[in-house]
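Checklist before submission:
- one chain only
- standard amino acids only
- sequence pasted in full

Submission:
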Amino acid sequence: MKVHLAIDLGAGSGRVLAGIHENGHLTLEELHRFENPGTILPGGQFWNILQLYREILVGLRAGVKKYKDSIVSAGIDTWGVDYGLLDSRGCLLGLPFQYRDPRTEGMGAKMDELYGNDKAYAETGIMPFFLNTSQQLLADRLRGSAALKSASSFLMIPDLLAFWLTGRKAVERTNASTTQLFSPKHNDWAWSVIEGIGLPKEIFGEVVPPGTVLGNLRPELAKELGADFQIIATASHDTAAAVAGIPGEGSYAFISSGTWSILGTELSEPILTEEARVAGFANELGVENTVRFLNNISGLWLIQECKREWEKGGASFGYDALAALASEAQPFTSFVDTDAPEFESSGDMPDKIRDYCKRTGQPVPEARGAVLRVATESIALKHRTRFEQLKKITGRDLDRIHMGGGGTQNEILTQAIADACGVPVYAGPIEATACGNLITQMTVTGELTNIAAGRALIRESLPLKIFKPADSAPWGEAAARLEAIQTST
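Returned file contents:
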């Protein structure tokens, strides 16, 4: 038996899982789960990174207590774009900002003025977006950030945590590719973009590919935990890990479904055409030198925010109950553009949905189930639009979608995506991110020959559920209605 630990952090919660590899089978066990809420302080919205590190150590201790010398390695994956700045001694210069911190307001226009957003896309393959690392760092520079002025090193969130575990500073490539400061063509930092927006070049250090052994635990930490093992720079961007852990076969699209729904396909080379840029597709890097050609869709965000708003008023809903409410409501009454600016931020999402419907002359959903039905169908319609664009831009006949992540548990949404896109959706595993993290580690330790072997292991260990499409004609009519609404607003 060999055990690998997956440290999987999301923008909301985190956990440490054990992947037990024995007799050709992979079993997952959750060792420790913890919250990762954003924290609003004077000066901005931040991550409590020190608490996250302490929670990780709790999880590692639980793993050591149970599995001792069977532990071979551990790897970290987190959300992208956010970062920490370190001084010359390796000391953290302040809490990392959250990607929704409002300091980036107006930075897209400023970046376009300084360098050109079209030029940045041609170099990095990443669309301008308010949460991009590039816009965050530009905001830091223009605000005269003392941390940026004093920084010697820049590390993404998983790299910062790995530095604290091992003492080695390195930025893993899949996460670097989310920054809009990395060139997939040159496999290096996009120095022209960095210089063009006036960022200090010296803070951007070593970039390593997924599957790099960063080293063993720091000696004092190994002594504290009572064990020692390798820390591997796995696919450290959670979407890269999820795509690695989605066991697709054939000509398929992937969806990593969570707060964000990431739809795309794996390529051998980036697509940096004007058509790709206008459609909003990004080129992020994946395992085994692949490119994840993808589009960010507001996934469960609308539903999660409705749940949060209702619970503020004292209600309590599990996601199964929310799905049941949506399924009982009348279909195809109204739709919203999930990319509309008002849906980017938190705050009374049910009323935002109602206001959009009222403003666009549609029936206004009053009951909770009706609001959820509008949100669910609108999310599915956005997937339909992006799926059709994906096929056209790549020239691929994608005959199925493989969908992993927590969103697969919302079966009404998963079925709606199958119906809207007109292809079967192979759902699973729920723990796609942890699975991708683990199999990337296992290719390094020699237990797997490559990622394809890891995906086969996942298929054999964690069966998929297939959602076959029903009649897609109503969805075509709904898509035409939503397009007319978007054109008129």
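Reviewer check: The chain has two domains: 2-236, 237-428+464-489.
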